[in-house]
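Whiteboard transcription, Tuesday session. T.W. wrote the C-alpha cells on the left side:
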C-alpha cells in the first residue's frame, strides 16, 4: 500500500477498506507515515467525510493502537459519561458520587483541560492532598470499595489519537465530524466502560455551533458505540451560556458541593438529573427516566450523595474539610464586581467569552504549559432570562492579580442586555439510536 494512493482515494470521495484504514493508523502511529501525508489525508477527510464503515474502522484502529483498560474485576455494569466540552461544566464532579450513591459503579478516567477552563482533574487538584495517579489495580480496588474513583489516564491509551489530535490542532482539521467522533469514542472504548452517556454540547461555547451539526455528531458516536457492543446514548444540551454559576476550579468544587446538597443552580442541577438518570438506565438500575430522576433526587435529599462525595475525596487522599468550611480551599486575594451597564433582561452571556475571561484570570490554560491558579474564576449572579437593573452586580471576578481590565472587557463583550430575552431550552434532544 502507498499512502499517496490512499490520500488520492479519499480526495476522490471513494470508500476506504477496513484494511486500508488499519494500515494508515498503524503506520502513522509507528512514524512511517510522515505528518505531511497524514495532514493531507485529514484535510481530504475534512472535505469529503467518511462512511459509517470508515468511521467505525478508524475508531477501532485507534483503540487497537494502544492499551485497553479491563474493568471486568468491577462488579456491575460500568457506565462512563463524556461531555464534548463546555464552559463551567461541573457535571462530572456531581454525577460521579451521585450515581455511585445509587449503587452504580463509576470508574472514571479523566483529562486535564486544554480549554478556557480546567478539566475535571484540574478542579479536583484544588483540593489539598487529592491524588489522581493510581495503578490500574488500585483504581479498580477504589471502585470496588467506594463505587467511585476519578483518576488520570494511566497506561498507553489510544496513542494514535494523541498523535492525530495534535496534528489536527495545527492543521485546522479538528472540526470534522468523523474525526471528532472517532477520537472521542476511541478513548471511551479503550477506557473500558460497558455503557457510555454522551453530553453533546451545542452553542457558542461548544465545538458544535448548530443543533443539526451536534445531532450528526451525536448519531455518529451513538452508532460507533452500539456497533462495538457498548450501549451508547447522547443528550444534546445547551452551551450558549456557561453551565451553572461558577467558572473556575475551587469555585466549581464549591458549586458541586452546593448541588449535591440540593442547593445548586437550576440548569446545572437539571442537567445532572437528566444525565444521571440516563446513566442509571444504561446500567439497568431503573427502567424509566422518571424513576431515575426520582432516585437521584432521593439520594440528594437524604444527604447520601454528599456523603458519597466526602467518601470519594477522602479515599483519594483529599482533605474534605472544605465541605463544611468553604474557606479551607483558600480565597483569591481580590473580588471585583462586574456591573450591569443598563437595565433590562440578560439575553446573552456568550459562553466562550466568559470562559476566556476566566482563563485570563488564570483559571484555565491557553497553552499546555500554563499553570492553573485553583482559586481564581468568575461567579455569575444573573443568567439568561433574568431581569436586571443598571448597576446590579452581574458577576464577581475572583482574582489574585489586581489588573483585571482584560477580563472585564471579555465579560462586556459576552453580555447582551435587551428589553426582553428568549430562553433556549437546556436539553434539545436525546438520541438513543443512530
Ligand atoms: N475532543 C476529543 O477528544 N477529540 C476531538 O477530536 C474533539 C474533541
Ligand atoms: Ca459551573
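and on the right, the sequence the group agreed on:
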Amino acid at each position: 500500500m502507498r499512502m499517496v494512493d490512499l490520500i488520492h482515494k479519499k480526495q476522490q470521495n471513494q470508500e476506504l477498506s477496513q484494511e486500508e484504514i488499519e494500515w494508515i493508523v498503524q503506520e502513522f502511529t509507528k512514524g512511517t507515515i510522515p505528518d505531511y501525508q497524514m495532514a493531507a489525508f485529514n484535510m481530504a477527510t475534512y472535505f469529503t467525510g467518511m462512511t459509517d464503515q470508515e468511521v467505525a474502522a478508524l475508531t477501532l484502529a485507534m483503540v487497537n493502537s494502544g492499551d485497553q483498560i479491563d474493568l471486568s474485576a468491577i462488579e456491575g455494569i460500568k457506565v462512563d459519561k463524556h461531555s464534548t466540552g463546555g464552559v463551567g461544566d461541573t457535571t462530572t464532579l456531581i454525577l460521579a458520587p451521585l450515581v455511585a450513591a445509587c449503587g452504580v459503579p463509576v470508574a472514571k478516567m479523566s483529562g486535564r483541560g486544554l480549554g478556557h477552563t480546567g478539566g475535571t482533574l484540574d478542579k479536583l487538584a484544588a483540593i489539598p492532598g487529592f491524588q489522581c495517579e493510581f495503578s490500574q489495580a488500585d483504581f479498580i480496588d477504589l471502585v470496588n470499595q467506594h463505587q467511585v474513583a476519578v483518576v488520570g489516564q494511566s497506561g498507553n491509551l489510544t496513542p494514535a489519537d494523541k498523535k492525530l489530535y495534535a496534528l489536527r490542532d495545527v492543521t485546522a482539521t479538528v472540526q470534522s465530524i468523523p474525526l471528532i467522533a472517532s477520537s472521542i469514542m476511541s478513548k471511551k472504548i479503550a477506557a473500558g466502560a460497558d455503557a457510555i452517556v454522551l453530553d453533546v454540547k451545542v452553542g457558542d461555547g461548544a465545538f458544535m455551533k448548530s443543533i443539526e451539526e451536534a445531532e450528526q455528531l451525536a448519531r455518529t458516536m451513538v452508532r460507533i458505540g452500539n456497533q462495538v457492543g457498548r450501549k451508547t446514548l447522547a443528550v444534546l444540551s445547551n452551551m450558549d451560556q456557561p453551565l451553572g454559576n461558577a467558572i473556575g476550579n475551587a469555585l466549581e468544587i464549591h458549586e458541586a458541593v452546593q448541588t449535591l446538597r440540593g442547593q445548586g443552580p437550576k440548569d446545572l442541577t437539571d442537567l445532572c438529573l437528566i444525565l444521571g438518570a440516563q446513566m442509571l438506565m444504561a446500567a439497568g438500575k431503573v427502567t424509566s427516566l422518571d424513576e431515575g430522576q426520582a432516585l437521584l433526587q432521593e439520594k440528594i435529599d437524604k444527604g447520601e450523595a454528599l456523603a458519597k462525595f466526602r467518601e470519594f475525596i477522602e479515599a483519594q487522599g483529599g482533605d474534605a474539610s472544605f465541605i463544611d468550611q468553604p474557606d479551607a480551599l483558600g480565597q483569591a486575594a481580590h473580588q471585583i464586581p462586574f456591573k450591569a451597564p443598563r437595565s433590562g433582561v440578560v439575553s446573552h452571556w456568550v459562553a466562550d467569552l466568559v470562559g476566556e475571561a476566566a482563563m485570563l484570570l488564570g483559571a484555565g490554560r491557553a497553552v499546555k504549559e500554563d499553570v492553573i491558579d485553583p482559586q481564581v474564576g468568575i461567579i455569575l449572579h444573573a443568567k439568561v432570562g433574568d431581569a436586571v437593573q443598571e448597576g446590579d452586580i452581574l458577576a464577581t471576578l475572583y482574582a489574585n492579580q489586581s489588573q483585571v481590565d482584560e477580563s472585564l472587557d471579555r465579560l462586556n463583550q459576552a453580555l447582551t442586555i435587551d428589553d426582553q430575552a428568549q430562553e433556549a431550552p437546556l436539553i434539545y434532544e436525546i438520541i438513543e439510536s443512530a
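Someone added at the bottom: Residues 88, 90, 243-244, 246-247, 252, 255, 268 surround calcium ion (ligand 2) (CB under 6 Å).
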